[in-house]
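Lecture 7 notes: from sequence to structure.
We start with the chain below.
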Amino acid sequence: NPRLAFGSDTSLGWLPWASGGLLVVGIAELVFAMTWRGRAARTPQPPRAPVSLDEPSWPGPLPPPVASYQPTDQGVRLEQLKTLAA
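Predicted structure tokens for the same chain:
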């Protein structure tokens, strides 16, 4: 009477039946989905709006910035010193 790896001698005879049951349920769902898709494909669909390729779909160019940053003389000198030091 061989024992399993952890000393349990319980039978796993239900496992093939559970696997077979899951297989049957999966096949039934597949048949149902294929039937549903076949019926949905036969129903008339509303026409889609035509796509115009002549006009751009974006709003246009970006507006110019409102105010630009004007560096001070001290900031310019500081950046020049950083450049010379590097």
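Points to note: The two ends are 84 Å apart (CA to CA). The chain has a mean pLDDT of 82.
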